[in-house]
Amino acid sequence: MGVTSVSLDLKDPEASIASMARAVSNWGRWGEDDAVGTLNLIDDEARTRAARLVRTGESLSLSLPFDMNGPQRGWRRRTNPVHTMLDTGTDAERGLQGFPHGIGGADDVIAMPLQCSTQWDGLGHIFDHGMAWNGRRAGDVVTSEGDLVTGIEHAAPLITGRGVLLDLGRHLSPATGELDDGYAITPDDLDACIAAQGPTSEIGTGDIVLVRTGQLARAKREGWGEYAGGPAPGLSFTTAPWLRARDIAAIATDTWGFEVRPNEFENAFQPLHQVVIPHLGLTIGEMWDLDALADSCAASSRYEFLLTAAPLRITGAVGSPVNPIALL
Amino acid sequence: MGVTSVSLDLKDPEASIASMARAVSNWGRWGEDDAVGTLNLIDDEARTRAARLVRTGESLSLSLPFDMNGPQRGWRRRTNPVHTMLDTGTDAERGLQGFPHGIGGADDVIAMPLQCSTQWDGLGHIFDHGMAWNGRRAGDVVTSEGDLVTGIEHAAPLITGRGVLLDLGRHLSPATGELDDGYAITPDDLDACIAAQGPTSEIGTGDIVLVRTGQLARAKREGWGEYAGGPAPGLSFTTAPWLRARDIAAIATDTWGFEVRPNEFENAFQPLHQVVIPHLGLTIGEMWDLDALADSCAASSRYEFLLTAAPLRITGAVGSPVNPIALL
Amino acid sequence: MGVTSVSLDLKDPEASIASMARAVSNWGRWGEDDAVGTLNLIDDEARTRAARLVRTGESLSLSLPFDMNGPQRGWRRRTNPVHTMLDTGTDAERGLQGFPHGIGGADDVIAMPLQCSTQWDGLGHIFDHGMAWNGRRAGDVVTSEGDLVTGIEHAAPLITGRGVLLDLGRHLSPATGELDDGYAITPDDLDACIAAQGPTSEIGTGDIVLVRTGQLARAKREGWGEYAGGPAPGLSFTTAPWLRARDIAAIATDTWGFEVRPNEFENAFQPLHQVVIPHLGLTIGEMWDLDALADSCAASSRYEFLLTAAPLRITGAVGSPVNPIALL
Amino acid sequence: MGVTSVSLDLKDPEASIASMARAVSNWGRWGEDDAVGTLNLIDDEARTRAARLVRTGESLSLSLPFDMNGPQRGWRRRTNPVHTMLDTGTDAERGLQGFPHGIGGADDVIAMPLQCSTQWDGLGHIFDHGMAWNGRRAGDVVTSEGDLVTGIEHAAPLITGRGVLLDLGRHLSPATGELDDGYAITPDDLDACIAAQGPTSEIGTGDIVLVRTGQLARAKREGWGEYAGGPAPGLSFTTAPWLRARDIAAIATDTWGFEVRPNEFENAFQPLHQVVIPHLGLTIGEMWDLDALADSCAASSRYEFLLTAAPLRITGAVGSPVNPIALL
């Protein structure tokens, strides 16, 4: 693919997005009925190889806690998860539950945005000029009844494969391990990080790439502040061809919004999303906690592992909370 | 362990439960602060061996869909999941969202009981006479603020290991593959099934055992009916010593309630739960869809695989929805 | 108004609805910015007169209970209300809450469809061929962010005035007080009921009319069954001109859906709604419990009272739960 | 009643609360089964007189909007209301809903704490040393299934009667109409306000007293800030005997927490609540918007009106959102 020359005019995001979209589009690549985009790139053989990467058996959850102490502050009605009890141990102990032979129970419910914490963005999450993944009209895909075509349920069995950590935080800021807010990670940064980390971080077809910026480590230390939507390090708009050329299956970051914020264009909002979700068909993870994984990878100098990051099988969802498991 | 002689009086569940609890108790086994029970039995070495079981790379989701077509009928305020949209493609296509440069988005929320569909029961889910796992008072563990001690978040990284399918449905009912409602699976049934299936279904320390009854296949064909709480095949109360002796890490079934229903005692409610959750410290999965897995295992005559069944990391939850992934 | 001659073709609901809509339309009557329709017809003078109707000071709630025992069965994701506790007395009594000087508390949350039980339909609830009240395009009015124009909050202070009970159940079925399911109440039935009940049930401008069919009494006795959407007595499609001619402000019934079900046309769904909400601008109440009120009115032979039925002031809602208070 | 001499030790809230509780207790006054406390003091005769107060027919909603722009910030899992759509006008206009003859619809759901905005506190909301209203053990009253004894549903028909506005903001701060945060309203302040406002604000048995501090006007102007739980003007702990002596039925304020904050005792939390809810049996309203009412009362020099403030009839709720209607 020779997709490196795309026009970028920082004052004209719309033209740049259109140009980039044409350059990297995967529309039609997996047939007109496709519902999973680049997740097609993980095949059984890739999963078999990924399983063989397991060395120590160390299992790490890459999920943040889901509770009221999360980063959400109400933007677009996104709250932190509200978890309440239907039955409690206190009631059981006091003998209030009316069950026989001394059995008691506790039960619970949750109300939450599907993108309130560690999550996958589904392919129905972002549109470009009213068009969704694979060239469909957005209104034919996601109505108030949910995503009728590319709902996250289609990805339910698919997101297990080779995970690779690119620890840009440590690579670019060895002293702190954290990139500054507003830092735009470029294709050259990605390549240099891979070179520095060594061959276990080479990226190939069907890989699930985890990009650590270190911003989450800072938020855990200093408080959420503007983590949900404010300034953040993240991928530059210019990485779209890099993502396309390597044919990765999915990507996730330790930030709220995957791409650098403020966005690189003037008066813009998440332009890289606008390219990679509807045009590339790329599944994006956000708010993943990569810190323990990064410590482990740094200690072993191995950056590849079996990653199982199964979304909940919610019919018609445009995103899903997830508890990604790295098996090292 | 010689825990096979426990007194059973079908008219006296309370005494039988007490006797069985004493016989199989794991209280104190992993220290007084333990929060995960038999999940301790999966260690890094076990996970490494489990990863080596992968042969074909076939990945199967063992989850039911999460939507309004689920089995819940309101018992104890358990509803099916209510999934609603915060933003839609219809709105985006019509230009109603107010974002710049043609980007549009869809977002969603969910309200659901944590045990409405494919799930794990956490250790705070069931109590015996006001006592919770490891000998704690239930009211010290699960208040209206959630499970303060044994919340499902402690299990977040742990539930990945060797899965073994015991297809009791096919074994006992070869013609239909489905056990009758009310059929109580005995220890002898389990042993005979293992023997018939062959060495890949031998059960050992730290395994995650999946028991298929076939009831879910029937429900998918005929409608939910009384699936949520009504008559069902399931484990006999007498299997508790078998589960304890094999030191399994976790177990899951394709039924609403894991154990046979109606329960074997008169005037009883889930007596096996009352033994194995608070006394054995066993994590139980329910409403798992094992049908595709069973087809695959039957075809290959291999019943073991890498299972990753990561609960959402919901702080203080006594259960969690899960999308279990079997990697064969 | 001479709006009585409208064409009705039971095989052609679409043409009949169009004809009826033209005959009764209030579009433009209260200006192009109007957000409340016929609620404009209750003025301060009408409210003053309504307050003077109070004789005995008897106060009756016309609301059903809001709980899991309600009529909803999941149609279009409508559930019964799920009420859960954030804090409990059990926890407080056990000393688990961490407050000083012995204070304890209980708190709660609810998740519910706004039309799950006793309710008002707002003007954004129903559209006719993509058009909303007062001639607006439906997509300009109700997006996934709610009703941006005619949200129920506009009605917050308005729905207090003269209430009149028309007890069609008692009038037409004196033996049981209950109309049969499928019975269509005609304009003549309404007039005859008024004549029989006497001058306190004369209907005039700005009145809030409560039509009791008795179906709810039957459901309370026999169980909900198909109450939510099944066969029911209710207003005939032909009552639209009657409702328009009397210039009532609002109307409510003791049924799920206000109009007779099955609907009078073949292959139809709520055709009277399609006329009276978007074209007449009429606010409709459903699932009101009129039984105690009917007893009281029958005993006193007075059918008028002060009615205060204030919707919750939920920004952008297309309906609201309500606890209507009749002060007799 | 001579209940004015109660001991107050600002360093010992516990003793002061106990002393005050004894002085003002209503336990047993309405029988041992009572579920509504001082709401008993509004009888039919009082409601009849209240209806006669109506002069102009002006109807005012005293409710704040219920939406994501509300004051909640997550304390004890209290969020602002999350209102989402099940169906939209955009979908209807685009022809996505599948209904016949051109009908379309919009529907919605809400998830909210019952005390997130304009509200009533029910009698099960606050306990004193594990005891609830009328001398019951808190754990016998409010379990995780809700308030089994004094749920808000018992108050459903009762809260309509004579409302009286005491505009302490205007009375004590004529220049701004707003009391400072931290200002404790004393019994003398209440009496002086009544004297200044004149005979229409005399308080008697069964009245519903609305105390305006002006804090909400400030919050509407300057932003919520710490409105939910931070410093605020409010009633002094010493007003409990005043409230008891006048036998009011209910009271509401324009603040988050009714009583002055910070509380007057050291290391205290809502001590007046601890007296007046469980001991007096007083129903308390919070976050009422009294500003338009205050303007109207000031203009007419009449401070009494018919108030209808019907809680939703939610079974077992310890509080309820409410849209209070003042009819002047």
TrEMBL record, chains A, B, C, D:
EC numbers: 3.5.-.-
Top EC class, one word: hydrolase
InterPro entries: KFase/CYL (IPR007325), KFase_sf (IPR037175)
Keyword Cell membrane: no
Gene Ontology MF term list: hydrolase activity
Keywords assigned by UniProt, alphabetized: Hydrolase
Highest taxon above the source species: Bacteria
Keyword Lipoprotein: no
Membrane-crossing residue ranges in chain numbering: none
Gene3D superfamilies tied to this protein: Putative cyclase
Designated name of the protein: Cyclase family protein
